[in-house]
Design a protein that fits this description.
Number of helices: 20
Strand order of the largest sheet: 2-1-4-3
Mean pLDDT: 76
Distance between the termini: 25 Å
Order of helices and strands: EHHEHHEEHHHHHHHHHHHHHHEEHH
Structural class: alpha+beta
Largest sheet: 4 strands, mixed
Length: 418
């Protein structure tokens, strides 16, 4: 997936000298450790599990709070560098085992319980990823270890004593026990990747739980809105409701047919913020961390892209396999030089040239546009700073950033990098 910055997300840099404290909301039992090894480890890897256990061990058994630590000491214990730690910590955050809180250069890491096996196997996203990573044979072997024991009690009588049969009643006291230690699970955070108004148009009574499942399926199998709607209609049963099992099986079949393999988690490496980065670098990062459909939508002062414009974007991504960050530069360039018209023939002509030139990054696409305009003696603009001078083409100016902020999610993104 290309959309790796969500509304309200704060990006930050981890430094060796930064201090952190651990809050433990996980009373990790032997059963929890088995779940971590059997179910979570195939998805996020053994190093992420090691980091979780190491953080857990920094908190004494009789307290919820660790002493203040620094990252340099932690990395020495783990024997890894900061980049590897950050990547694996974010994997733990992604599956709901850790939450990170920041105040200036101080951090708090909150540890949460892993889901129990029943909850894990009934979590559509995690269960599917486990199946895809292990394969059918190994998945069934792991599942067998957590199978419920079925005993026929139909010929037995329940002779268990009730509370009032065992204990004498007494006056109840109204005591405040709100401060008693409570261990918690953390819910997995997932941004919406589909347009529910379009996908579910005309369908009655779709629950929020089902919407969450559909969103997870779209994320897992990289489904576009139109593809997911076709799958929804395909899976409707005689009761006019969505059969999720049929939909999931069909989504898996289509994905395997097109990609020759099942999907698994791919870590999205976030580019951290450098307070000294230039205007150009900030805009490159905007291109790199924004979905093309969201970026195109941001160009509208009101309304949304037409179906034809969305189809152009989908074709560039699906058929032409053009990188999303390159598509964003293409959108910006075409709208600027083509009088805000995003027409199929014009876009495909430029896209075809860029594909033949092997342009695969936003920076390379910007450089090509700048060289092209310089060759044709187009006007340029000099942007001065205390440290350096940057020559940017006229289409790539400060208005660019203002245009992006039409979309609420991009406003937050730009606020975080300014």
């Amino acid at each position: 997936m290309w959309l790796n910055i969500h509304k309200g997300e704060v990006m930050y840099v981890l430094n060796l000298k930064d201090k952190f404290t651990i809050i433990n909301k996980s009373n990790s039992t032997d059963y929890d450790k088995k779940v971590l090894t059997d179910l979570y480890q195939p998805i996020i890897g053994s190093l992420a599990i090691l980091i979780y256990i190491t953080l857990y061990n920094q908190v004494k058994a009789d307290t919820l709070l660790s002493k203040e630590l620094d990252h340099e000491s932690l990395l020495r214990i783990l024997g890894i560098n900061m980049d590897i730690f950050r990547i694996n910590k974010e994997k733990l955050e992604g599956v709901g085992l850790i939450k990170t809180f920041k105040k200036q250069d101080e951090f708090i890491y909150v540890l949460y319980k892993p889901l129990d096996a029943f909850s894990f196997f009934n979590n559509l996203l995690l269960n599917t990823l486990l199946y895809n990573n292990l394969g059918t044979k190994l998945y069934k072997s792991v599942l067998k270890e957590y199978k419920d024991i079925k005993i026929d009690l139909s010929e037995y009588s329940d002779v268990t004593k009730s509370f009032d049969q065992v204990f004498k009643t007494t006056s109840l006291l109204n005591l405040n026990n709100s401060n008693v230690r409570n261990y918690e699970y953390a819910k997995i955070k997932m941004a919406s990747v589909i347009d529910f108004d379009f996908v579910l148009e005309g369908l009655p009574n779709i629950s929020e739980s089902l919407k969450e499942d559909l969103n997870n399926i779209a994320f897992l199998y990289n489904l576009k809105d139109l593809e997911l709607r076709d799958l929804v209609l395909f899976s409707m049963n005689s009761k006019n409701t969505i059969d999720l099992d049929i939909l999931l099986d069909r989504a898996r079949e289509v994905y395997v047919f097109e990609n020759s393999s099942l999907p698994t988690l791919k870590y999205i490496k976030m580019k951290t913020v450098d307070e000294h980065e230039s205007k150009k670098d900030k805009l490159i990062r905007t291109f790199e961390n924004t979905s093309p459909l969201v970026y195109l939508k941001s160009k509208y002062k009101s309304g949304s892209p037409s179906k034809m414009e969305m189809k152009i974007i989908e074709d560039l991504m699906v058929k032409s396999k053009m990188e999303p960050e390159v598509i964003n530069v293409l959108i910006s360039y075409v709208l600027k030089v083509n009088n805000q018209k995003f027409t199929k023939n014009y876009v495909e002509t430029i896209a075809g040239q860029w594909l033949r030139l092997g342009i695969k990054t936003a920076e390379a696409a910007m450089k090509h546009c700048m060289n092209f305009q310089n060759t044709n003696k187009t006007k340029t603009k000099v942007v001065s700073s205390k440290k350096q001078e940057e020559i940017l083409p006229e289409w790539f100016d400060q208005k660019q950033e203002k245009e992006v902020t039409n979309d609420e999610s991009l406003k937050d993104l730009l606020n975080s990098i300014n």
